[in-house]
Backbone:
């Protein structure tokens, strides 16, 4: 770069000759040089600013463009992330306690139509009516011809064969959408527990599967939760036992000419419901619609074991006896006078078929099923203590079983708990509970006095419930129950090797419109524990309006109806539960020794 | 010296560029493979679910009961009853097999035998 001197000699000399100040020249040159320097640095600064501006513009431009593309494009899963388990979007399976499938999903297709794309609407309607005989050809043809219709559903679920046939029609206006449907492979088995499922919000490409009843509805949210990652819901039910119980109970119901039946099989320690049956039942794959008129309990959808509350009769007597023993009022050998008359609140308390048992012990009251005997014990116990005991056994609240219908099974209690109520409730009249309530109560006696809450879910250990009676009282009660079978009203209940103990109950059905009881309609119940010397399970069998007609007179008592059915069930079920029959141990003498 | 430095850095830029593109394509290929595998897993899972449902359907207690009844003459299957439990005491001890005295050993090799 050329550097001009501040004091160029030629100009200085010239200025000196003219007598001018040479410093002016220097100042001028200095000034020029400064201007040059200023221009240069400004240029440089402007250049830098420009570069910076361009850089910022580019950076913001890139960010903006990226934002634009992200906002405008279809969302996609990140491809490079290492996911362990992929998201399982389908509803979780329901399995039994041994992992066998009770409810699962199946991929299928739905059929819908775009009428404006149809080429031969009449022929399509005709062909569809041939494939689906329940569809009306004329109605379909009319709807296909409607120019305003752009879209219509034809069928929500198709079998693969039907889909192929529809495909073979070759109509471009018929379209398929993928669907996931709920499948209950075992048909009607455990239908009341599983409930059923239907479609919620529906689109062409998918549809929500939602539970409509039973455990499917109770755990709907949790079954649909993708965070489950498809882990199945494990129930306490055992499919084999459930199937055997349903078969035997159905045969028993037919044999005893009953209109309905229910049974509950429960583990006495854990409260797990291993089998629960309500007949008549239904197929959850094709759930019938609820009754719109008449009695809801006549519908096969009605769960008699959990929803149905009945007066379960003399099966309640053991609770009265157990409480009286627990309070120290009596022991099994205390003699109570059961002779008439026994009047409470102006009402005479009678016995079955007007028997007079005389002066008998507490054990005999249970064995012979004396109403007056338990009534007197109830009066000794008192109303408040009786209510408290039954409340602790769970007889005042709906059962906590995990199905939506369970909340409907609220026990019916007297509005005013009078002395008369106390007496009638002591033998199971005037209080209506579900068979499941009764099973829970018997489980407390069977497991040595711990109240259990029935559950439909598989559990790993025994329940840590509150103690309602002492071990010795529970053992004495079990001995009485065993004697009911060996020498009392349930003589048909003996199953060799299983030492069944139990109590029968026959209650007249109350008239629906009030005003007394039917003379010829009963609820026959047999509540059992087995094996009585070391109870593992409690089984409650209830028959609705049974009548046994092999004798000269029709017989309706539980001893002739529910007991043989229960015995047959135990004979079938106990081996399946892995209980080995014992012929040596557990005889009555052995049980006596334990109770002393 | 300086031009050599320029040349080297230019070559380095070309080299790293090539390497970056190469790695990028390899990653894309791997991702495609992962996608394909994931799709296969999904299909396999779907198939598994259907097979499981079919297994459960074919093993439903009603069907097994009907089959057992239909084939009663051949199989003689009956529901399990309490009297079918056995006691270990009832099982007879195995009778010891008589020990065969081998006096004249025979060569039993198949070497050289014709193929069936």
Residues:
């Amino acid at each position: 770069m050329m550097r001009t001197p501040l004091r160029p000699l030629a100009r200085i000399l010239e200025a000196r000759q003219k007598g001018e100040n040479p410093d002016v020249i220097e100042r001028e040159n200095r000034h020029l040089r400064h201007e040059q320097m200023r221009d240069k640095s400004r240029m440089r600064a402007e250049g830098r600013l420009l570069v910076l501006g361009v850089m910022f513009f580019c950076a913001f431009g890139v960010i903006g463009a990226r934002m634009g593309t992200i906002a405008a494009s279809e969302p996609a899963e990140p491809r490079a992330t290492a996911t362990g388990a992929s998201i399982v979007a389908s509803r979780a399976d329901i399995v039994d306690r041994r992992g066998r499938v009770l409810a699962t999903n199946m991929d299928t297709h739905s059929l819908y139509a775009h009428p404006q794309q149809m080429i031969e609407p009449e022929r399509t309607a005709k062909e569809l009516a041939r494939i689906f005989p329940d569809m009306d050809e004329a109605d379909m043809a009319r709807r296909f011809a409607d120019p305003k219709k752009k879209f219509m559903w034809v069928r929500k679920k198709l079998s693969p064969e039907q889909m192929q046939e529809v495909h073979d029609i070759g109509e471009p206006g018929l379209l398929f959408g993928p669907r996931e449907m709920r499948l209950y492979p075992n048909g009607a088995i455990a239908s009341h527990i599983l409930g059923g499922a239907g479609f919620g919000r529906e689109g062409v490409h998918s549809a929500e599967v939602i539970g409509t009843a039973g455990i499917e509805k109770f755990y709907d949210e949790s079954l649909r939760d993708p965070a489950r990652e498809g882990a199945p819901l494990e129930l306490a039910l055992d499919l084999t036992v459930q199937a055997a119980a349903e078969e035997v109970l159905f045969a028993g119901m037919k044999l005893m000419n009953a209109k309905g039946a229910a049974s509950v099989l429960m583990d006495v320690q854990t409260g797990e419901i291993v089998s629960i049956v309500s007949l008549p039942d239904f197929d959850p794959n094709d759930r019938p619609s609820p009754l719109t008129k008449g009695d809801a309990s006549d519908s096969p959808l009605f769960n008699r074991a959990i929803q149905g509350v009945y007066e379960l009769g003399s099966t309640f007597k053991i609770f009265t006896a157990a409480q009286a023993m627990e309070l120290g009022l009596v022991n099994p050998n205390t003699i109570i006078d059961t002779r008439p008359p026994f009047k409470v609140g102006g009402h005479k308390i009678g016995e079955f078929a007007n028997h007079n048992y005389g002066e008998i012990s507490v054990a005999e009251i249970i064995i012979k099923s004396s109403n007056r005997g338990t009534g007197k014990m109830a009066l000794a116990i008192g109303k408040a203590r009786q209510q408290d005991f039954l409340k602790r056994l769970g007889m005042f609240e709906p059962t906590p079983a995990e199905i939506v219908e369970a909340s409907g099974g609220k026990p019916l209690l007297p509005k005013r708990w009078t002395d008369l109520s106390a007496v009638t409730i002591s033998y199971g009249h005037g209080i209506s509970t579900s068979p499941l309530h009764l099973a829970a109560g018997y489980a407390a006696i069977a497991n040595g006095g711990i109240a259990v809450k029935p559950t439909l879910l598989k559990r790993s250990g025994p329940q840590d419930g509150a103690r309602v009676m002492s071990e010795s009282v529970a053992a004495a009660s079990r001995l009485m129950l065993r004697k009911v079978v060996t020498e009392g009203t349930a003589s048909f209940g003996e199953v060799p090797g299983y030492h069944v103990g139990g109590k029968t109950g026959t209650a007249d059905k109350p008239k629906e419109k009030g005003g007394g009881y039917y003379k010829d309609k009963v609820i026959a119940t047999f509540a059992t524990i087995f094996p009585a010397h070391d109870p593992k399970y409690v089984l409650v069998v209830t028959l609705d309006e049974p009548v046994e007609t092999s004798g000269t007179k029709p017989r309706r008592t539980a001893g002739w109806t529910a007991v043989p059915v229960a015995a047959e069930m135990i004979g079938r079920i106990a081996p399946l539960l892995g209980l080995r029959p014992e012929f040596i141990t557990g005889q009555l003498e052995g049980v006596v020794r334990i109770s002393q | 010296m300086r031009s050599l430095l320029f040349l080297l850095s230019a070559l380095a830029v070309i080299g790293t560029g090539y390497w970056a593109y190469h790695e990028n394509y390899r990653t894309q290929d791997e991702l495609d493979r992962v996608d394909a595998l994931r799709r296969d897993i999904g299909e396999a899972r779907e198939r598994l679910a259907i097979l499981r449902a079919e297994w459960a359907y074919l093993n439903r207690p009603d069907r097994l009961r009907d089959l057992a009844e239909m084939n009663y003459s051949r199989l003689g299957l009956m529901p399990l009853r309490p009297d079918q439990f056995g006691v270990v005491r009832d099982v007879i001890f195995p009778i010891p097999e008589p020990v065969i005295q081998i006096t004249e050993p025979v060569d039993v090799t198949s070497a050289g035998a014709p193929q069936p």
Q: What stands out?
A: The interface with chain A takes residues 27, 31, 34-35, 38, 41-42, 46, 49-50, 52-53, 55-57, 59-62, 65, 79-85 of chain B (CB under 8 Å).
